[in-house]
Amino acid sequence: MNSTWILIIILSFITFINRYTFFSKFVKYHPGKELKEFLNFSLQAILTALWVPIVFRYGESGVISYTDINYLIATIFVFILGVFRLNMLLVVFLGLLLFFLLKFNLLGL
Amino acid sequence: MSDNFKIIKQATLDISPLALAVIPWGILSGTIAINIGLTLFQAQAMSLFIFAGAAQLSAMTLLSSGASMLSISGSVFAISSRHLLYSIDLRKEVYKLPLKWKIPLAFFLTDEMYAVTKAHMLKSGKFSKLYSLWAGIVFYIVWNLSTYIGIVMGEKIDNLDKLGLDFAIVAVFVAITVEHLKSMSMLVTTVVSGLASIYFKSTYPDTYVIFSALIGMLCGYLVSKVAK
Predict the structure, then answer these.
(1) Residue A43, H or E segment
(2) For residue range A16-38, what is the model confidence (pLDDT) as tens digits?
(3) ipTM of this model?
């Protein structure tokens, strides 16, 4: 077995442990009310921290700039559609449609 | 229609936009795996067993640059450490279940599975193990099929990584984030973790997500306390 297979096994173990730890009975810790309230913010905070740096970046002069104009425009579009509480599948579809129209210059702008 | 069937149908519907959006991402990960020299089986095994998009991509980038096994493991641990937060949050619901439920629920736990689980808990008022497991399985199947497509396409299409395929996941995450902007504390969490992630990404390529998220969560939590 070569080292790549060993790596895949180790990495599979690592991702599983991160997911399983607090499901285990061997861990005695139980989150209290305050921690649960704190954790209510986790999904929002993590998803934001995942998508924001794909669209925005920290410029050399210390200002926030965008990575790619097509990403920026399509993101703003999705944001606006989201405010109107449209069905998520529709929002994602329209966002992608606009993105690829912009990306491949199909709007004639 | 039995209750279980209703739950399965609802889980499939709810996870579908998120699963569709991950297809380009899966294709990308299959393609990259082939391009850095993994065999077909190794490329698929990454999605079958590691099952963590961002962590897989980072591992492959590091692997192709000749990084050590220790540093690749460290990176994957840091990137997937956010799942610890999800598993603490779901602990009360899951830890008393038998192993035959706990192990698959943990294995299939992703950002996307957690997102639909939380929304479903809010709507129905309780945790459904069947709902979460099913959503996780659907997502897993889509992730692996798209990885397979990427493996097959990888040798045929150049510059797949420059097509902007990652925008799909941005679109879904933006849509979910907007939906949650319902209180001042959520707004603060969003703005703070967003700004922090822009600032930290270049400096801490592995830990910026968990760092930025924890800072954002803390600020949102404090604002919610002051508001009371």
Answers:
(1) helix A42-55
(2) 999 999 999 999 888 899 999 99
(3) 0.93
